[in-house]
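Q: I'm building a small set of examples for a reading group on sequence design. Run inverse folding on the following structure and report the sequence directly after it, with nothing in between.
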């Protein structure tokens, strides 16, 4: 279903599409295992996409992308008048878990994702074997 939603047409021959599908699938199941509500799950998947787009489209450095995460998470646990971030549907504990997940899934492997998005030519895969 994610393959269709992400509109991946060359999954069997594109290493990039396969890696991204794996990343989104792992994130989805991680959030489901934590019993995130539908709104929380949607917000989490949006956050995954936002951070990957910052990397792939805007060529953000690790430091800049971490700052963007900080802005998005700002205000969690505060009263409505003090909130400035857009992920206020997460509890403080959930927000900490999200940050931990992003650390181990994206930020620790940032150079690999940079290579994925910035490598000049994708290796041609001739067969599925």
């Amino acid at each position: 279903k994610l393959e269709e939603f992400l509109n991946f047409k060359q999954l069997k021959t594109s290493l990039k599409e396969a890696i991204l599908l794996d990343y989104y699938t792992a994130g989805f199941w991680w959030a489901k295992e934590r019993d995130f509500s539908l709104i929380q799950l949607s917000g989490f998947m949006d956050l995954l996409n936002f951070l990957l787009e910052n990397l792939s489209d805007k060529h953000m450095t690790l430091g800049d992308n971490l700052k963007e995460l900080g802005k998005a998470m700002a205000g969690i646990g505060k009263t409505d008048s003090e909130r400035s971030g857009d992920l206020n549907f997460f509890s403080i504990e959930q927000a900490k878990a999200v940050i931990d997940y992003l650390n181990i899934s994206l930020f620790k492997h940032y150079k690999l994702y940079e290579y994925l998005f910035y490598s000049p030519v994708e290796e041609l895969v001739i067969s599925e074997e």
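The chain has six helices and no strands.
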